[in-house]
Write a structure and sequence with these properties.
- This protein is of the alpha+beta class.
- The chain has 2 domains: about 130 residues, Ribosomal Protein S5, domain 2; about 70 residues, Alpha-Beta Plaits (2-Layer Sandwich).
- It contains 5 helices and 11 strands, in the order βββαββαβαββαββαβ.
- It has a 5-stranded antiparallel sheet with strand order 2-3-6-4-5, with helices on both faces. It has a 4-stranded antiparallel sheet with strand order 9-10-8-11, covered by helices on one side. A two-stranded antiparallel sheet has the order 1-7.
- Strand 2 and strand 3 form a beta hairpin.
- The longest helix is centred in the middle third of the chain and has 18 residues.
- This is Putative YigZ family protein.
- It comes from Flavobacterium aciduliphilum.
- It holds the Pfam family Impact_N.
- InterPro entries: Impact (IPR023582), Impact_N (IPR001498), Impact_N_sf (IPR036956), Ribosomal_Su5_D2-typ_SF (IPR020568).
Length: about 200
């Protein structure tokens, strides 16, 4: 079972690609929600006041993939699609690439545009640090305080990540484990006396 994916550790540094007086600024960001994507675009629009086109592509998710390619006024499929092609060729997800264009007065034609947007997207990704992450499954483990030690022992033994914990008379701990270990972890906690485990989506 493949339970890893590639994404970016941090936003890339700004890159500049020039073609016949047009300037193409490329950016790549790690993202997990459409809200973050909107925020990045808003910031770039303020930063590059006067730019004509803010073309972008993103891909989110590991099981259910969500993606979009936006030409932002350029001829159809000359900007968003070549940008998205670079996300695919680098094998990334949870990523947004934006290419901001300042028009230089000379038309580039369809082939020129595709090439320029693809190059700017590629340069942005080459300037970013690509990392591998695991696809994790989250569970909530509920138990009485008196069973704390046995629950904590398993969490430690199995090297589980604690996301949140609520320690009162009845305790709840949210844990994360790699997808490939999820069934095994679920079974271990299910077989514990006076402990319940539920999957959190």
């Amino acid at each position: 079972m493949n339970d890893t994916y590639k994404t970016l550790s941090l936003p890339s540094k700004e890159i500049l690609f020039k073609e016949k007086n047009s300037k193409f600024y490329g950016y790549a960001f790690p993202v997990t929600t459409e809200e973050e994507i909107k925020n990045h675009l808003d910031v770039l629009r303020k930063q590059h006041y006067g730019a004509v086109h803010f073309c972008y592509a993103f891909q989110l998710g590991t099981d259910k993939i969500q993606f979009r390619a936006n030409d932002d006024g350029e001829p159809s499929n000359t900007a968003g699609a070549p940008i998205y092609g670079q996300i695919q060729s680098f094998g990334l997800t949870n990523v947004l690439i934006v290419v901001v264009r300042f028009f230089g007065g000379i038309k580039l034609g369809v082939g020129g545009l595709i090439s320029a947007y693809r190059t700017a997207a590629q340069m942005a990704l080459e300037n970013a640090e690509i990392i591998e992450k695991t696809v994790n499954v989250h569970f909530v483990v509920a138990f009485d305080y008196k069973n704390m030690n046995k629950v904590m022992r398993i969490i430690k033994e199995k090297n589980l990540e604690i996301i949140t914990q609520k320690m009162e008379l009845t305790c709840e701990i949210e844990i994360a484990t790699r997808k490939k270990n999820a069934e095994n972890i679920f079974d271990i906690f299910t077989n514990l006396f006076e402990v319940t485990i539920t999957r959190k989506d």
